[in-house]
Amino acid sequence: MQRRQAFQYELMPTGDQQRLMRRFAGSCRFVFNKALALQKERYARGEQKLGYAGLCQRLTAWRNGPDTPWLAEAPTHPLQQTLKDLERAYANFFAKRAAFPRFKKKGQSASFRYPDPKQIKLDQRNRRLFLPKLGWLRYRHSRDVLGEVKQVTVSANGGKWFVSIQTEREVEQPVPNGGAVGIDLGIARFATLSDGTFYAPLNSFKRYESALRKAQQAMSRKTKFSRNWQKAKARVQRLHARIGNARHDYLHKATTTISQNHALVCIEDLPVRNMSKSAAGTTEQPGKHVRAKSGLNKAILDQGGFEFRRQLDYQLAWHGGHLIAVPAQNTSQTCPCCGHVSADNRRTQARFVCVQCGVEDNADRVGALNVLRAGHARLACEVNGAVMPTAAGTHRNAPIRLDAGLSAVGPPPDFRRGRMSKRICAPLGAARVREDERRTRSINPSRHGARMRCIS
Ligand SMILES: [Zn+2]
């Protein structure tokens, strides 16, 4: 299996190198903006959009022309890569994946990319890296770079410079460890696993919120673009970087642990983007519960649910596992024991009490159990080639195998007494369980909950 991996290090540039890097990043931004302006002009005149090759020709003209001779001082390849980025921005726009490309502003994501491995030299023993027109750069060698170097990206964040080295290497086909698990993402608990473990929220933003507010207020009192304003701005950016670093670290640790210990992970397909849309609404249609919603949005964005999913996806692929996203309907309101769906099941945020059969558990874990069951159902359907189930709990209408220990009306007598037959209690192995057992096992509460209580 081929694995692509990026290794990021902090650079330790000299003053000259820092100035050069700032200049190169600025040149890239200039080229991007000029090309975008050109495309917009051509569109207004009714001409065809220039392709990558056409833009590269223009770039050569700009580099050799009298207006912007300083462009020739920047390395060619990074400038061309900027044009590639613009092409991709347009492609994403036409495919309705993104908004129309916008002009880049100074001070936002300064970066440039060297795509040619032949021009890059990596000297790991001496902790240095050679890049065209920058020379040998020292970097903080925190771990070894594995594999063949494909390209290198230099970027600035919070006043520091970083290098990301993208590599490719052949690895053995990984064998996944452990069984299946469902994950419920929430606010009170960042992530709850169906086996009962949970990750407390980090809330790195909350921790630094007041410091950040103070720094921002101090910045607003300075004369814009003055020396003191620049210093205040640097302070704000440092705080943002620190918040991001803490979150990054936490998410990486959580996703690594989960993906190392599970072969199949089911997760809710939460529309994070919708949830974090402005709660205020528009002037014509003002939003409801603006304050409460914006608080919730802040919390969701702070914890990085989207990034969590992205990391789980690639980490599981590295470890040979699979990620299954299931639609997030009724996962918090369905009883894992009898399948009763009702909003009354969840009177409080933390507790889940089924109004029909009386099962009690932590609400987040019930959500995780339902996600796991929906994931199993989805997997079974994919194997069968049947239609996708619409939501968690809805396939309850389908006949359930009574001999597996669950009836449509309630839990079996064994379960009421707190004992289950050995056959059903068999631990959930890898993803390769027998297909007809999948459904029944995943809704089997005995394995997942010692704390569950049924009183019907
Ligand atoms: Zn119930």
UniProtKB/TrEMBL annotation:
Renumbered residue ranges of the record's region Disordered: 437-456
Keywords in alphabetical order: DNA recombination, DNA-binding, Metal-binding, Transposition, Zinc
Highest taxon of source: Bacteria
Protein's name in the database: Transposase
Stretches assigned to the Probable transposase IS891/IS1136/IS1341 domain: 165-278
Domain Transposase putative helix-turn-helix, chain residue ranges per copy: 1-47
Domain spans labelled Cas12f1-like TNB: 307-371
Pfam families in the cross-refs: Cas12f1-like_TNB (PF07282), HTH_OrfB_IS605 (PF12323), OrfB_IS605 (PF01385)
Lineage summary: Bacteria, Pseudomonadati, Pseudomonadota, Betaproteobacteria, Neisseriales
Family statement drawn from the similarity comment of this UniProt entry: In the N-terminal section; belongs to the transposase 2 family.
